[in-house]
Amino acid sequence: MRLDKPGQIDRSQALRFTFDGREYGGFQGDTLASALIANDVRVVGRSFKYHRPRGVFSAGSEEPNALVTIGQGAASEPNLRATTTELCEGLVAQSQNRWPSLEYDLLALNDLFAPFLGAGFYYKTFMWPAKFWERLYEPMIRRAAGLGALSGAPNADHYEKAYAHCDVLVIGAGPAGLMAALAAGRAGLDVILADEDVRTGGRLNAETVEVDGRPGADWAQAVTDDLYAMGNVRIMTRTTVTGAYDGGTYGALERLSPDVAARTGAPRECFWRIAARRTILAAGALERPVAFQNNDRPGVMMAGALRAYVNRWAVSPGKTVTVFGNNDDAHRTAADLLAAGVHVAALIDARPEASTDLPVRFYAGAQVTNAHGRGGLEAISIATLSGIDKVQTDCLAMSGGWNPTLHLTCHMNGRPDWSPALAAFVPRDGAVPGLVAAGACRGDFSTHACLSGGLEAARAVIRELGKRARKIDLPQAEDAPYRISPLWAVPGKGRAWLDFQNDVTVKDVKLAATENYSSVEHMKRYTTQGMAPDQGKNSNVNALAVLADATGRGIPETGTTTYRPPFVPVPIAAMGAGAQGAGFAPQRFTTSHQVSVDMGAPMIEAGLWYRPSYFPREGEKTWRQSCDREVGMVRRAVGVCDVSTLGKIDVQGPDAPAFLDFLYTNMFSSLKVGRTRYGLMLREDGHVMDDGTTARLGEHHFLMTTTTAAAGQVMKHMEFVHQCLVPQMDVSFISVTEQWAQFAVAGPKSREVLNGILDDPIDDDGFPFMACGPVSVMGVAGRLFRISFSGEHAYEVAVPARYGESLFRLLVQRAEELDGGAYGMEALNVLRIEKGFITHSEIHGRTTAFDIGMERMVSAKKDCIGKAMAARPGLSGPEREQLVGLVPTGAVKKLTAGAHLFDAGAAPVRENDQGYITSVGFSPTLGHFLGLGFLKDGRARHGEEIRMVDHVRQIETTCQVVDPVFFDPEGGRARG
Amino acid sequence: MRIPCPLCGSRDIREFDYMGHAQALDRPEPEAGAQAWDDYVHNRDNPAGPTRDLWFHGLGCGAWLVVDRDTVSHEITAAALARDVKGGAA
Question: Domain Aminomethyltransferase C-terminal spans what residues (chain A) (predicted)?
C-alpha cells in the first residue's frame, strides 16, 4: 500500500503499467517492485525448483525473487530484477517460471515432491534406465526448473560499448563515495563516480539519518550538485561496475533511463571499460537473511529493504509488520515503520541482552521459527524461553546482519578476511592493485564512519597522485555502534531457505556435508548454492556458515567460494555491442566494387575484401559457363581483373636491398631498377610464409606485393624482422594497399588495350617481360608492371585509388571492344592452375620451398629468414609430399580439392595416405579437369596412375600424375 | 590489462599482439648448429613469475615492444622499444 508521506516519488507524474496483463498505476521515481508493493501485489514470481510463490525480497540488484520479463516479442528481456527496473509509462512486465499462471502454477506439485528433489537429486534419481535421461528426464527437469525464456527472435535493440579514463574511479555514491568524490574533485583530479542506482545517495535515500543537520538524501543531492558544477567529475548513475581487471581496468554496465533508451537509435545499455589510475570502492553492504522454516513466504523480506520502501518510495508491503533481527540495525526498521504510521506487531531480537525504548511488543532472546500462510505471510511462530508465540503479521522484516560488498576486491584472486566483531568478511588491503575500500564495504557501517572513511581514502589517493587535498570539513552524522550476535539458521524442522533464487535450503547444505562435499567449492556445486544469476549475494556467507557448523570447522577455515565477475548479469548484447554483422567482420571494397556489382558479378569474400567471382553475360545460366568464357577470353583476346586487394608495401632506404635479401629466400639486391622479380618468403621455422613480386622502382625504392590473405601477417613480420633482428638497417616501409588501385590486363591483346590509354605507348623492347616503371595514364601518374598470373602476355597497371573506378570502366570497355572483358576470381583461379602457379591453397603453412619445387630459390650466397631451419632433416627429400599436377583418367572426370591420394591397389585409409589435392578447376583450354596437389615423392612419379578418394563428398576416381605446369610450360606466351 | 607503450603511453591490451618470450631477439648465427636453432625457434620456458616478452602494437604505432611482466601478479614493470633493446640501449 502507498503511505501518506512524501518519499522520493513524483506524485504529479502518474504512470500506467501492466504486470501479467493486469493494469496498475505508479509514479515517476518508482521501481517496478515499489509500484507492485503499492498495488498490494504480493506474489511476483515462482521459485526455481519448487515453484513456491515468492514476493519482493530486497530493494536492489541482489534481488533473488522478483525476476520478471520486460517488454514483448523480440524486444522482451527475461530475468530482469523488478527492484532495479525503473517504472515508465506503458511498461509491460510478465512473471516467470509458472504455468498456466502465477496464482495457479501446476508445477507447484514439485513442492510436494521436495523430499526427492534435494541437493544432487539429479545425480541420484532418474538414473535408470540410462537411455531415459536424454529423452525424458533431462527435458522434463529443464522444463520444470528455470527462469525466464528468450523470445528466440533477433533483438533489434541497440547496445553500445565505450571506453573511459580517469584519475580516480569511485564505485558507489553513498556517503563514503560522495565524500571521496568531493575530496578528489576538489583536488583537481579527473573523477568518475559510478553508482548502480538512478540517483546518488546510496543508503541515505533509504534511511532517515541526518547529515549536517538535514535529511541525508538532501545532503547527498547538495554534494551531487557541487560535483556536477566542478566540471572534472563525471557522475555515472545507473552504472554498475561489474568487474576489476588487470592494470586498473574495470568493466561497467550502464542502463540508460527508459525515456532516453526509447529515443530512435538510442542504446538500451552501454558496456564501459574504465581505465583508472586509482579506485575507491564504496560499494556499501548487503544485508543477509536468517534461515528459518518457510522463510521464503511472500511478505518475508529484508529489513533494510523494507526501510527503503517505506522511506524512499512511501510504500509498505504490509499493514501489520513484524521485525526479526540479531543486531541493532534491525531496530531502526521498527522505528521507521512507527514514524511512517505502520503498525508494528512485534520486534524480535535474537540477542538475550537486547533492549528497546520503542513502543512495540518486544521479544529479546527469541527466534522466529516458522512462517505461515501459503499464498503469502499470515502469521509467524516465535520461540521464546516460555514457549511458542504465534503472531499475526502480513510482513516480516528480517536482518541477519550486513555483509560488506567486497566482491570487486576478490576479482583478481584476492581472498577476504573474517572479522569476528562484525561476523562478516572484510576486504583485504591491496587485493586489487590501486584499489582501496571505504565505508560499509570495508566494514565501517555508521554514517559518520562512512563519511570519514571516504574522505580518508580520497586523501590517500590524492597524495599518491601528487595532488594537494583541500580542506574539507567532515559533516556531522550518527555514529551508532553496530552490535551483532551471529545467527545463521534457526534450529528446527522443515525447510529453511539459504539461497532463494536457486532453492537451496539448510538441509541441502547439511546433506552435502554429510555426503563429504565438505569443501565450500564442492558444496556450492553439489547444492547449486550461489550459482543463480544473483551469484549468492544473499546466501553465500550464510551457506558457508552452515557448512562450517556442519563440518565442525570455523568460518575462516571454511573460506569463501571465488567471487568472479560480473557483479550483476551483463547482457551479451552489451559486451558484444558493435560486433555484429559488418562490425564483426569489416568489409573492404575495391574501387571497382560498385561497377562489378552493377555488372551482375556475385561478390565473394577474400579475407575482409570482396571480389567478383565472375561477370555473367546474357544467355549464361551457370557460373561455369561464365568462367569458361572468361578463361577463353584471356587466352584468346584480353581480360581485365581488379588485383588491388593484393598487399602492396612500399620499401625505401639505403638498406632496402639488403633488407629484402634477408626477408626473401632469393636475391633482390641484384635486381635492376625497372625490373620485377618473384620472391619467396619463409617463416623462421623453414616453412613458406608468402610469395609475390617485388618491383625495383629506384636504387633504394622497392614495391613489394603480398598475397591478399597474408598482407597483414607479412607487414607484422617485416616490422618484427626490422625492429627486432636488424634495427641497424636503414630502411622504412609502409602499406600502400589502399592508396593504389591496380588492374591486371592479360591476354594477347593486352598491350593494344594499354596503348589506348597510356600517354606514351609501350613496345616489347622498351617494356619486356618483368619490366616495371612509371607511366602516364591519360595524364595521371601511374605505374606499370609487366607481370603475369595467367601465363599470358600481361600487365598490371596501377593508379592512385581515386582514379580506380574510372580506369576500371575504361579498361573493361576497351577490352570488350577487342572481344575481351572483365574476368573474376573463378577464371583467375583456372588460369593460374593451368599454369601451375601456387596460392595459399598450396602454401598453407605446412609446405616448404622444397615441397613446391622452389628449393633452388633459397640462395646459397646469403642468410635469410628460415634458411637454417629449412635445411633440417625431414623438410626435404623423397618422404616429402611434393607439388604435382593431376588429370582425371577414370570414369569420373571430376577432381575435388581436399580429396586424398592413394596407390592404385591400396585401401583408402589413413595409413596408406599418399597425399592430397589442394586446387582444382575445369580447364576450358585443355578440355578437362586439372588438379594441383601434394604427393609423396611426387616429382619422381610423373606418369603414374593414382587413386583419388574424397571421403567427405563420396567421390573417387583415378588420375595421372603430371607436371604441375599444364599449359605453355616454356612460358613463351608471357614473353611474347 | 594495459601496456605502457613508450611511444603512445598506456594503452589497452586489445591494441597489442603477443609473440612470446623476448629470446626471439637473439637470432643465432646461420652456422650455430641444430640445437641453437631449435632452442631459438621452439624451446621456451614457462616461468611462474617475472618474464620478458615481445608485444606488437599493431593497432597503435606499429612498434615491437619488450615487456617485463609477472605471470603470477600480471604486473607490468617495464616496456621498451625492441629496437632500443636490440641496439643495446636498455
Answer: 882-968
User: Is residue B34 within 8 angstroms of chain A, CB to CB?
Assistant: yes
- Three-state DSSP class for A968? coil
Going by C-beta distance under 8 Å and a sequence separation of 6 or more, which residues neighbour residue A238?
A196, A197, A198, A254, A255, A256, A257
Distance CA A154, CA A156 (A): 6
**Longest Cα separation, chain B:** 41
Give the best residue of B7, B31, B37, B71 to mutate against chain A (max A CB count within 10 A): B37
Q: Is A117 left (phi over 0), alpha (psi -120 to 50) or beta?
A: alpha
B37 and A868 within 8 Å at the Cβ level: the answer is yes
Q: Which has the closest alpha carbon to A961: A894, A901, A893?
A: A901
Q: Using pLDDT thresholds of 50, 70 and 90, give the confidence band for residue B88.
A: low
- CATH 3.30.70.1400 for domain A649-735+852-868, yes or no, is yes
ipTM for the predicted complex: 0.98
SS (H, E, C) A21-85: CEEEEEEECCEHHHHHHHCCCCCCEECCCCCCEECCCCCCCCCCCCEEEECCHHHCEEEEECCCC
Distance in angstroms (rounded) separating the CA atoms of residues A63 and A330: 19
B57 is written with which cell numbers? 602494437
Domain A877-975 has CATH 2.40.30.110: yes
- A488-571 has which CATH code? 1.10.10
Cβ(A959)–Cβ(A945) below 8 Å: yes
Interface probe for A, chosen from B7, B40, B74 (most Cβ of A below 10 Å), is B74
Q: In this complex, which of A685, A727, A867 lies closest to B41 when CB atoms are compared?
A: A685
Give residue B36's region: left, alpha or beta (phi > 0; psi -120 to 50): alpha
Q: Which CATH architecture has domain A159-285+404-465?
A: 3-Layer(bba) Sandwich (3.50)
Does B27 contact A725 at a Cβ distance shorter than 8 Å? Answer: yes
Q: Domain residues of chain A, as ranges?
A: 1-153, 159-285+404-465, 290-384+393-399, 488-571, 595-646+737-837, 649-735+852-868, 877-975
pTM for this structure?
A: 0.91
CA A526 to chain centre: 28
**Which candidate in B5, B52, B64, B86 is best for mutational testing of the A interface (most A CBs within 10 A)?**
B64
Model pLDDT for residues A478-499, shown as the tens digit of each residue: 999 999 999 999 999 899 999 9
- In this structure, which topology does domain A290-384+393-399 adopt according to CATH? FAD/NAD(P)-binding domain (3.50.50)
Q: Do A728 and B19 touch (CB under 8 A)?
A: no
CATH no., domain A1-153: 3.10.20.440
Please give, one letter per residue, the 3-state secondary structure of A282-306.
Answer: CCCEEECCCECECCCCCCEEEHHHH
Residue A871's CB: how many other CB atoms inside 10 A? 14
Determine contact, residues A559/A520, Cβ cutoff 8 Å: yes
Question: For residue A542, how far is the Cα from the chain centroid?
Answer: 32
Domains in chain B, CATH or no CATH each:
2-27+47-84 (3.30.2270.10)
Residue A461 carries which side chain, given as an amino acid letter?
A: V
Would you say the C-alpha torsion A59, A61, A67, A68 has a positive or negative sign?
Answer: positive
- For residue A289, give the nearest of A539, A118, A616 by alpha carbon: A539
- Least Cα distance to A601 among A592, A84, A27, A714 occurs for A592
Q: CB under 8 Å to A914, separation ≥6 — which residues?
A: A881, A900, A901, A902, A903, A935, A936, A946
Q: Do B1 and A245 make contact, defined as CB atoms within 8 angstroms?
A: yes
For residues B82 and B54, the answer to whether their CB atoms sit within 8 Å is yes
The Cα–Cα gap between A834 and A383 comes to: 93
Chain A CB contacts of B63 under 8 Å are 719, 723
Convert the pLDDT of each residue in A248-292 to its tens digit.
999 999 999 998 988 888 999 999 999 999 999 999 999 999 999
> Is the domain covering A595-646+737-837 a CATH 3.40.50.720 domain?
no
